[in-house]
Amino acid sequence: MNSTPTPRFDLIGIVTSDLAASLAFYRGLGLEFPAGAEEQPHVEATLPGGLRIAFDTEETVRSFATDWTPPPSAGRIGLAFHCGTAEGVDTVYEELVGAGHKGEMAPWDAAWGQRYAVVLDPDGNSVDLFAPLASAG
What we know:
The protein is of the alpha/beta class. The chain has a single domain, classed as 2,3-Dihydroxybiphenyl 1,2-Dioxygenase, domain 1. Helix content is 21%, strand content 31%. It is built from 3 helices and 7 strands, in the order βαββαβαβββ. The protein has helices at 19-27, 58-64, 86-98; strands at 11-16, 42-46, 52-57, 78-82, 103-109, 114-120, 126-132. A hairpin with a 5-residue loop joins strand 6 and strand 7.
């Protein structure tokens, strides 16, 4: 009998150079964080279904990994948010870009049947916005 537990994917961790900017960005995508979270060194939110997302400041990581340095370039992770409808993709994209975030790819109708767009979070990580296209019919 195997007594080794099966690992369960539980948390996405992001190290950020500006926690307040990151929380504002992800709040714009519907994630909820407690009031005053911007003043904490570590912040978590539980997503629908139980998966968690956590943010740590660079200073927090350095406090327990003194030889840690940020990766030399951004974009080492990609997150995707379902926006409900094709119109929802356009609306969320425009709201984020209007709030000063960088639009990487404006909304388009992808060949695989989805409305798609890409924005960058404050640390340069790719965040995809998508929804199925309405079926013609």
